[in-house]
Design brief:
The protein is α+β, with helices and mostly antiparallel strands and 374 residues long. The protein folds into two domains: 2-107, Immunoglobulin-like, CATH 2.60.40.3120; 114-373, Zn peptidases (Aminopeptidase, 3-Layer(aba) Sandwich). 26% of the residues lie in helices and 24% in strands. It is built from eight helices and 17 strands. It has a seven-stranded mixed β-sheet, with helices on both faces. The chain has a five-stranded antiparallel β-sheet with strand order 1-4-10-6-7, with no helix packed on it. It has a five-stranded mixed β-sheet with strand order 2-3-5-9-8, with no helix packed on it. Strand 2 (13-16) and strand 3 (23-26) form a beta hairpin. The N and C termini lie far apart (57 Å).
């Protein structure tokens, strides 16, 4: 048997692999940070052999509450990912399966590799309605890609959609792919209508370095990008700085930041209610978007989510809060679960890449419903 993780988004430390029913593992911390929870590795040489794998430091992970009712994902073809037997006991995450192939890949959530990101960018840029713009460079020297869909014109709204500030939250880029795929579907009347009335600026992966390195939450330097929006710098957070610089030249009417939440088994939107100057009109706009999204996609709900900040107390280093404060736009954070959707459960797959893509695509329905009110 062998366990390896020296590949795109891989993360695991092997402590012991002598006994297939007592494999001991640990998750490595993000470089320069105490954050860890994302894992992704390949087990080979265990075909038709029952294996039991224990992540010994799970209790010290960034969000230990996230392990409750959680199941890891596994795949033998890297295309189809299903949930496997998983338990959390005494600070240890215990995963069990019997591979039916010579190699099986196991991860915290369905990975979104950089190769797929490159394929997404390549497929979009050949569409005549899309322009690829490399707006900056990461600390490791990777491109920060922006896709611009639609032609600017009088009265057209400017929409910015970003994903994967936290690299381990791969459901965010799956959702971005679903949104882009639908947006460029010539046969979709909703997509045609919103492209006629708006210009989309989409950054499918805000954190390419963290994604490749197998980080949970930070960039190459160990910086949490979603705490940099009021102080973005080339030294610590060039990814955020590049986006803000580009926004200064376009303006913003709507901002959507896509994420995943380790603990809550729901899809929900967090707004900017605690930002100074928040008005009743702002609240009506936010509530209206959430109501429309719930109407179009039953996987989305509005009962459960984060506690709303008291007036004037919002942390302006967070993207959604800063965007409302600096641009006065409708600003939102979409959160998706690592586990399952409690209101629409799926025992075999839980919340999945495919369902993330569908929820991303549904954003176009909600956007269309509120576009004239922006």
């Amino acid at each position: 048997m062998r366990i390896s993780s020296r590949f795109d988004s891989g993360n695991i430390i092997v402590k012991s692999i002598a006994d297939p029913v007592d494999i001991r593992l640990q998750v490595a911390q993000d470089n320069g940070s105490d954050f860890f929870q994302w894992f992704h590795f390949r087990l080979s040489g265990a075909k038709n052999t029952p294996v039991r794998m224990v992540i010994e430091n799970a209790g010290a992970a960034a969000y230990p509450d996230g392990w409750k009712d959680y199941k890891a994902v596994a795949s033998e073809d890297r295309e189809n990912w299903g949930r496997i037997k998983t338990a959390y006991e005494n600070g240890r995450l215990i995963m069990s399966l019997t591979p039916t192939a010579d190699a099986v890949w196991i991860a915290y959530f369905t990975p979104y590799p950089m190769a797929r990101h490159d394929a997404l960018i390549a497929s979009c840029q050949i569409d005549p309605r899309v322009r690829l713009d490399v707006i900056g460079e990461t600390l490791d020297g990777r491109d920060i890609d922006r896709l611009v869909a639609g032609e600017p014109g009088y009265g057209k709204k400017v929409l910015w959609i970003i994903a994967r500030q936290h690299p381990g939250e791969t459901m965010a880029e799956w959702a971005a792919e679903g949104l882009v795929e639908r947006l460029l579907d010539d046969d979709d009347p909703v997509a045609r209508d919103v492209l006629d009335r708006a210009v989309f600026h989409i950054v499918p992966n805000m954190n390419p370095d963290g994604s490749f390195r197998g980080h949970l939450r930070t960039n190459a330097r160990g910086i949490n990008l979603n705490r940099e929006w009021d102080k973005a710098s080339a030294e610590n957070s060039p990814e955020v700085k590049a986006v803000l610089d580009a926004m200064d030249s376009t303006g913003v009417d709507l901002f959507l930041d896509m994420h995943g939440d380790e603990s809550l088994p729901y899809n929900f939107i967090a707004g900017a209610e605690g930002v100074p100057g928040w008005t009743e009109a702002d609240q009506l706009m936010l509530d209206g978007y959430k109501t429309e999204l719930r109407r179009f996609n039953p996987d989305f709900q509005t009962q459960h989510g984060y506690q709303v900040d008291a007036p004037g107390t919002a942390d302006l280093s967070i993207a959604t809060h800063w965007m409302r404060h600096a641009f006065g736009c409708l600003a939102m954070t979409l959160e998706m679960p690592f586990k399952d959707s409690a209101i629409t459960p799926d025992a075999d797959f839980g919340w999945s890449a495919g369902r993330s893509m569908k929820l991303g695509a549904s954003q176009l329905d909600a956007i269309r419903a509120v576009l004239d009110r922006l």
